[in-house]
């Protein structure tokens, strides 16, 4: 069993992903940000789209569903909790469900906060996490619909995944996230190393994903809201981690 991941640019700063089960030839798009970008990636690889896995209802993740359904015989899977906001879903998913792409199993995990019904897809065997806007490299998505407590609890579940997990997020925000992270955690050696790596990658016109979850656990401040140093930075020593997480998120919103 082997999963091949193709990463490509879409829209202005979205990442697009094709995941291909080499045993069966089935291919899924993770979200549907832009039909032309998805089709170009399929053509480049010589793959045929069979499925679309949707993480949440925002337009830049679902806009291409109608065109892709028109042009391919696809099954569109997406969050049951946001079904009323997403046109074209065929199969509804809830946290705890499993989705098979050929021989590859994806676990569906809850990731509320950016949107209330946001889900992510985890290929445990292969070590791939498609986190969309729930978890970025060195950041997390804006808390448009959720509240700090549930979002923090969901991120802890993602943090508990193996260090070897590769994180494929929804946008190329890593350089901006690094600048903010360094402003609140300037002595973090893992963060400084990751920020330098990101600077080199972007200067060379390369992607900053996938990100290694083990590095994110050390460098991403949003995954470390339960560490005393970050609490102290915001004057919240002894406060619940969810309060520290909220302060970090507010700090990034205003950065």
UniProtKB/TrEMBL annotation:
GO terms for molecular function: hydroxyacylglutathione hydrolase activity. Binds 2 Zn(2+) ions per subunit. Zn(2+) 2 binds at residues 60-61, 133, 171. Its cofactor is Zn(2+). It comes from the Bacteria. Its EC number is 3.1.2.6. Pathway: Secondary metabolite metabolism; methylglyoxal degradation; (R)-lactate from methylglyoxal: step 2/2. Monomer. Thiolesterase that catalyzes the hydrolysis of S-D-lactoyl-glutathione to form glutathione and D-lactic acid. Belongs to the metallo-beta-lactamase superfamily. Glyoxalase II family. This is Hydroxyacylglutathione hydrolase. It comes from Devosia rhodophyticola.
């Amino acid at each position: 069993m082997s999963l091949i991941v193709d990463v490509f640019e879409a829209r202005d700063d979205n990442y697009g992903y094709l995941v291909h089960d080499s045993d069966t030839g089935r291919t899924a798009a993770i979200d549907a940000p832009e039909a032309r970008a998805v089709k170009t990636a399929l053509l480049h690889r010589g793959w045929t789209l069979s499925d679309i896995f949707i993480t949440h209802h925002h337009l830049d993740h679902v806009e291409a569903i109608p065109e892709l359904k028109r042009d391919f015989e696809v099954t569109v899977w997406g969050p049951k909790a946001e079904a009323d906001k997403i046109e074209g879903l065929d199969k509804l998913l809830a946290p705890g469900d499993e989705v098979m792409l050929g021989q590859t199993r994806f676990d569906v995990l809850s990731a509320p906060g950016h949107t209330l019904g946001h889900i992510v897809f985890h290929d445990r065997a292969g070590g791939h996490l498609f986190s969309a806007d729930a978890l970025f490299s060195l950041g997390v998505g804006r808390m448009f619909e959720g509240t700090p407590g549930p979002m923090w609890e969901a991120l802890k579940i993602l943090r508990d995944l193996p260090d070897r997990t590769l994180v494929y997020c929804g946008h190329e925000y890593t350089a901006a996230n690094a600048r903010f992270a360094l402003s609140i955690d300037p002595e973090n050696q893992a963060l400084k190393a990751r920020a330098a790596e990101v600077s080199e990658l972007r200067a060379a016109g390369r992607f900053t994903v996938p990100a290694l979850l083990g590095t994110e656990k050390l460098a991403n401040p949003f995954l470390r809201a339960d560490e005393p140093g970050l609490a102290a930075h915001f004057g919240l020593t002894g406060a619940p981690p969810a309060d520290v997480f909220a302060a970090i998120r507010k700090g990034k919103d205003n950065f």
